[in-house]
Amino acid sequence: MGLLIAAALGVGSVLGAPLVLTGVGFTAAGIAAGSLAATMMSSSAIASGGGVVAGSLVALAQSAGAAGLAITTKAGIAATGAALSLLV
Predict the structure, then answer these.
(1) For the chain, what is the total number of helices (H) and then of strands (E)?
(2) Where is this protein primarily located (predicted)?
(3) C-alpha span between 63 and 66 (Å, rounded)
(4) 3-state secondary structure of 50
(5) Count: domains in the chain
(6) Are 35 and 24 contacting, i.e. CB atoms less than 8 angstroms apart?
(7) Which pLDDT tens digit goes with each residue over 18-76?
(8) How far apart are the C-alpha atoms of 57 and 38, rounded to whole Å?
(9) CA angle, 68 then 48 then 51, to 5°
(10) What DSSP character marks residue 70?
(11) Sorting pLDDT into bands at 50, 70 and 90, what band is 1?
(12) How many CA atoms lie within 13 A of 40 on its CB side?
């Protein structure tokens, strides 16, 4: 039963990740005005002196929001979700 729950949570995590990204403002059309993503981008730009640093959380989230998640990222999300369910 625990493995079934782990598998379900792993799959649910992969399916939910794009919904969460869009929900906080990382969309295919760019960062949504007035969203949490916009606030994160503004803070990141201020901290770095004017731009978003390549490889930062904001840059990675926007990339995933715009282009989708790579298969390796999906595998990592699924494994993390499954592992977390086994710890509970």
Answers:
(1) 4, 2
(2) membrane
(3) 5
(4) coil
(5) 1
(6) yes
(7) 899 999 999 999 999 999 999 999 988 887 787 888 888 889 899 988 888 888 888 88
(8) 13
(9) 55
(10) -
(11) low
(12) 17
